[in-house]
Amino acid sequence: MGAAAGVLVAGIALPAVGGAGVGLVSAVKDVGLEPRDLPEPPLAQVSVVQDVKGREIARFYEQYREVVPLDEMADVMKTAIISIEDYRYYEHGPIDIEGTLRALARNMQAGGVAQGGSSITQQYVKQVLLNSADTEAEKNKALEASYARKLNELRYAMGVEKKYSKDEILEKYLNIAYFGAGAYGVEAAAKRFFGVGASRLTLPQAATLAGAVQDPNATDPNLGKTHRDRLLKRRNVVLDRMAELGKITAAEAAKAKATKLGYKGTKLPGGCESSKYPYFCVYVRNEILNNSDFGRTAKDRLRFLNRGGLTIRTTIDPSMQAAADAAIRKWVNPSDNPVAAEALVQPGTGAIRAMAASRPYGTRKTRKEMSYNLVADAAHGGGIGFQAGSTFKTFTLLTALKQGMKINDGFSVGAGYTAPGASAFRNCAGGSIGDPGHTVTNDEGSPGWLTLQTGTWHSVNTFFMELERRVGLCEVVKTAKSLGIHRSDGGALQEFETFTLGINEMDPVTVANAYAAIGARGKYCAPMAISRITDSTGKTTDYKPKCRQALDPEVADAAAHVLSGVLTKGTMAAVGGIGRDAGGKTGTNDNSSSAWFAGFTPDLAGAVSLGDPRGTSKYKLNGVTIGGRYYGEVFGASVPGPIWKDTMLKALSGVPATKFAPLDPSFGGCGQSCRPVAPPPDDTPVEIRLD
């Protein structure tokens, strides 16, 4: 090694007198050609996303690469790459003196670095330095045509050959090299170019890949005929060289050269657009990129996902996803202007079991595709969502039960409700936000004597406005927040008197998860999409549900008891139940600008939204055709309710039915013979208008 270094230094120093090497002399004053240890960060590898049963559903990567051992690469591939890149590879040390001196002579004639003369070891070093570069400046430095860079590579090459055997270095090189067409490493290249693994490469295929590494961008077969012609010529150069070295016969070379290029352009797997479950895929990607559990900084998390070679086990259940997809297809067409979206969540864990929408996900900006996550909030790739409507009345019901009201407690209301004064409603900042100039009317239900049960079953707006005033707007907001409610766009919840009517824009995952807490007897669990990650070294990290008791179990049980009546006696009665204990709430916004249904069992919860993404204030659900059916006006039970029902029937088939816990006697009541619930004594009496 020392002798080699001496010859090299002598060879480098010679041209200094002629002027072409003046810059070189200054670069090697402290040449110090001793071995240097090369930092070798893990190669960027593909991260595979799996469903709950371990079947692949998506891939993420910065560089599409599949690392394989040398014995899983065809012998002809090893022979071809050595023949064209470094035919004396197994004979020389870290530096091929003949090749290096030959290149130096050529470079001196050119007055710069015109020929590399690099050994495979040196090329491996260059690839490692390039792949380790984080900035463009670092990448340019790793590729710059300078003697200083070549000397640095030589030092590292000497260190690499002290550390590894020749076979180990060759394996590393073939796994790191770029072959073109987006394929890194010989396994990915073999699949991309020819649709086979590296172990099955034929002579002409191996020669093609060996030829591609010299200038993969110039010979990228994915870029058109000119590039493919260059690659074909380069393949034939490799075949001629193999014959010249006696690695193959002239006849074998001629036969291989007579074959067509055979480039297949096998589509690279990965990305959410190619996933069977694109909306869930987008959710998982954003969960990793935005969650500090997966890295301290955004840059760390991006590298973790795109370079980590991870196996990501998720919570999505293929059978439940199929149920949601089928139900949505039955009721809403992809070509419809309104779009339906649905999320299924498991009570007690927060595990997201399905995310479906009526339109396909994509970024081609066609009218049919959606480029954002219809089912989730902005933090998980979603948009602003749709106003949740009367699904929010459930949070007012829960607050009343928390404060001790019984399910048959009630009061009389009219057909219109006007706040008795600005101070009748206070937000959580203490501000008076009542609007005596605005009257709320009923879209559904009739005025008169109503209880927590009947008011909920028939979704009477005026009843819930007065109920919210009595229990306190801020208390209702706190209840909603305790169940994970937040605006889809990430902004602060709008705390106005109509909060209970669902004025905040929401997404199905958030709403379904809040209702799942009722099904879990008040146990709230944050939405969960990832259950386990195994990194490229085999280290496995399990992720557990993040849960807390948000409601007293008896309160949740009482709410479930009330909400079950919605399916049998209320706004969903025409649609009907699902043959097991279930509860839920319809949601219809002003003038049918959007519609919802959120429902739950102890085993599964789901929420369905329906609205026009072009803008619900302009494009309402009146006089519309959805799924081939005409609707004069769309309510929560018109389309979202049936989607939820069909989904649950199929998703829960084969799942043993779990019953709701019995209603605690303390929440019972005696109906209309009970003493009406009085308003707070310090408030102005409620004004009732009978229109």
From TrEMBL:
<dbReference type="InterPro" id="IPR036950">
    <property type="entry name" value="PBP_transglycosylase"/>
</dbReference>
<dbReference type="InterPro" id="IPR001460">
    <property type="entry name" value="PCN-bd_Tpept"/>
</dbReference>
<dbReference type="GO" id="GO:0009252">
    <property type="term" value="P:peptidoglycan biosynthetic process"/>
</dbReference>
<dbReference type="GO" id="GO:0006508">
    <property type="term" value="P:proteolysis"/>
</dbReference>
<comment type="similarity">
    <text>In the N-terminal section; belongs to the glycosyltransferase 51 family.</text>
</comment>
<keyword id="KW-0573">Peptidoglycan synthesis</keyword>
<protein>
    <submittedName>
        <fullName>Penicillin-binding protein</fullName>
    </submittedName>
</protein>
<feature type="domain" description="Penicillin-binding protein transpeptidase">
    <location>
        <begin position="344"/>
        <end position="610"/>
    </location>
</feature>
<keyword id="KW-0808">Transferase</keyword>
<dbReference type="GO" id="GO:0030288">
    <property type="term" value="C:outer membrane-bounded periplasmic space"/>
</dbReference>
<keyword id="KW-0328">Glycosyltransferase</keyword>
<keyword id="KW-0378">Hydrolase</keyword>
<keyword id="KW-0133">Cell shape</keyword>
<keyword id="KW-0961">Cell wall biogenesis/degradation</keyword>
<dbReference type="InterPro" id="IPR050396">
    <property type="entry name" value="Glycosyltr_51/Transpeptidase"/>
</dbReference>
<dbReference type="GO" id="GO:0009002">
    <property type="term" value="F:serine-type D-Ala-D-Ala carboxypeptidase activity"/>
</dbReference>
<dbReference type="GO" id="GO:0008955">
    <property type="term" value="F:peptidoglycan glycosyltransferase activity"/>
</dbReference>
<dbReference type="InterPro" id="IPR023346">
    <property type="entry name" value="Lysozyme-like_dom_sf"/>
</dbReference>
<keyword id="KW-0645">Protease</keyword>
<keyword id="KW-0511">Multifunctional enzyme</keyword>
<dbReference type="GO" id="GO:0071555">
    <property type="term" value="P:cell wall organization"/>
</dbReference>
<dbReference type="InterPro" id="IPR001264">
    <property type="entry name" value="Glyco_trans_51"/>
</dbReference>
<comment type="similarity">
    <text>In the C-terminal section; belongs to the transpeptidase family.</text>
</comment>
<dbReference type="InterPro" id="IPR012338">
    <property type="entry name" value="Beta-lactam/transpept-like"/>
</dbReference>
<keyword id="KW-0121">Carboxypeptidase</keyword>
<dbReference type="Pfam" id="PF00905">
    <property type="entry name" value="Transpeptidase"/>
</dbReference>
<dbReference type="GO" id="GO:0008658">
    <property type="term" value="F:penicillin binding"/>
</dbReference>
<dbReference type="GO" id="GO:0008360">
    <property type="term" value="P:regulation of cell shape"/>
</dbReference>
<dbReference type="Pfam" id="PF00912">
    <property type="entry name" value="Transgly"/>
</dbReference>
<feature type="domain" description="Glycosyl transferase family 51">
    <location>
        <begin position="54"/>
        <end position="242"/>
    </location>
</feature>
